[in-house]
Amino acid sequence: MPLRVAPEQAHGHLRRIRADTLAGMGFSNLIAFFVIIAAAATLHAQGITKVETTSQAAQALRPIAGEFAFLLFAMGIIGTGLLALPVLAGSAAYAVASLFGLRKGLDRPLSTARAFYGILAAAMAVGVAISIAEVSPIKALYWAAVVNAVISVPIMVAVMLAASSQKVMSGMALTLRWKLLGWAATLAMGLATVAMFGSMALY
């Protein structure tokens, strides 16, 4: 771990991570808020409460984009895909390579990390296969969110345990304040997951 070798760099490194997290989460939540507002003011107002296709979702942009609503929506989907696919495939390749102790890194030439690049290519191929398969993208997004909500709780628990351990963090373990905030967030996520399953059972 680089910070174990040079712990004096921890403050600057964590400050950059904090700024990146605040900016990323701020913009993503702001965009999500406006997506909800646009859908509520257009689709829901017309009684469309179950969106089954991307064509229906694009209708939310019609009051602003008019006849170009579908073009604007398509550009957004393509842009999101170009941004997300390499990131998701890359993170999957790093995770699998780390799990099996393989050489990894996009800075490595192909000859020294064939397995890593193979995993990366396979992950992208799976993404492409899903996109051209007869799978409802709306349902896929919905169930991906459900799975993400379920697995996020044990992941948050594991992160909190690791981040609280002096043995793991080598003197950079969480302070009491961040432990309380972290466990509170984990508890909130767990309760939200339980509430989600409760609402699914009711409807």
* Integer-rounded radius of gyration: 21 Å
Shape: globular
Helix content: over 70%
Q: Catalogue the unreliable spans.
A: none
In DSSP terms (H or I, runs of 4 or more residues), the helix count works out at 9
Q: Please report the total strand number as a whole number.
A: 0
Structural class: mainly alpha
Q: Largest sheet at a glance?
A: none
What is the H/E order?
HHHHHHHHH
The percentage of residues in β strands lies in under 5%
Please describe what this structure looks like.
With 203 residues, the chain is an all-alpha fold. It has helices at 2-5, 10-42, 54-58, 62-65, 69-99, 114-132, 137-164, 166-169, 176-202. The protein has 3 domains: 1-50; 65-134, no CATH class; 136-197, no CATH class. Helix content is 76%, strand content 0%. Helix 5 (69-99) runs antiparallel to helix 6 (114-132). The radius of gyration is 21 Å and the shape is globular.
Main attributes?
9 helices; 0% strand; mainly alpha; 203 residues
List the helices and strands and how they pair.
Blueprint: H1 2-5, H2 10-42, H3 54-58, H4 62-65, H5 69-99, H6 114-132, H7 137-164, H8 166-169, H9 176-202
